[in-house]
Known about the structure:
Order of helices and strands: HEEEEEEEHEEEEEEEEH
CATH architecture of the largest domain: Beta Barrel
Radius of gyration: 18 Å
Amino acid sequence: MNQRLNKYFDKQELTLFGICVAFKGTKGDIVLKAESPDYQVNSSEPILVELHGYLVPFFIEEDSIFYSKTDEISFKFDTVNTNTEASEFIGKKFYVLTDTMLTFDDENSDKEISFKYLNYSCYDQHNTFLGKITDVDDIPGNPLLIIHDSFGKEILVPVNAAEILDENDIIQTVKITVPEGLLDIIDN
């Protein structure tokens, strides 16, 4: 075997990064329970997934990474495009090369949440403009998207219910599902 590649398949050179607990969205995004809250995704290096007794390398789409304070990280592999494909990863162990592993700076106790859609214009599943996504309130187990509409109202949408339906990075727009009745509560 090629010596440069050999290190990726020697478990002594690897660290358990986490275990896949779910998939989300419609395009095969993976939800990983990280082994440590300090682990950070290094999208320039492969993640090795233990499949059928073998370590198989996968690369992450850099813009798809989302961290939560509940030690979960969601991302999309560049070769996984459906939920059926993503479901194959549930319960599987994910490893990274120990010497390329990234962690959050220990001095930074207020870990910033990397959320791709901050400052994007947000639309619901009916193409109704909701406002701009200004923040994520990272309530453990129930993080909320904070959206400010044109009138200054704050709309809180549970991240777990906000499935991404469409996005346009060029004009910074995102279309999400909003639970039925949520906007009716806000309007009252």
